[in-house]
Design brief:
Length: 134
């Protein structure tokens, strides 16, 4: 298991949720928050590329299923960046407020799911290490 920064942070996700709940929709702040999250995901992806993923090489060799999940999450990260870019375009356009909310809400749900999946992978890897000697 490798240590990487928590991207996006829980604070960023809470800010995004608060912006989506606000009425009227603050498009400028929403764009800035999505931009910050997008940048954080790009940094996270670069860190994972440099380190070879969330798991150590020994984890990759010993547990192919974990290695596949690690790779899937890295690909999902790239998809999230792309989806955020599209959503930001919607935020900056003349799209209706509800359309923007739907787009950003889908991003928020996907980000939460992605964070949960990364955490689960890391925990499963640690559980495997700890239980390996039993």
């Amino acid at each position: 298991m490798r240590a990487t920064a928590d991207r996006p942070s829980a604070l960023e996700l809470d800010q995004l949720a608060d912006l989506l709940a606000a009425n009227p929709l603050d498009r400028e702040h929403l764009d800035a928050t999505l931009g910050s999250i997008e940048q954080g995901l790009q940094v996270h992806a670069a860190e994972l590329d440099r380190s070879g993923g969330l798991l150590d090489e020994s984890d990759h060799a010993a547990r192919p299923s974990l290695a596949r999940e690690d790779e899937r999450l890295r690909e999902e990260n790239a998809t999230l960046v792309h989806d955020i870019q599209l959503c930001r375009e919607s935020v900056l356009s003349t799209a209706a407020g509800e359309e923007v909310r739907r787009c950003a809400s889908a991003i928020l749900a996907a980000l939460r799911g992605h964070r949960d999946a990364e955490a689960s992978l890391v925990l499963e890897s640690v559980d495997t290490e700890v239980g390996a000697g039993d």
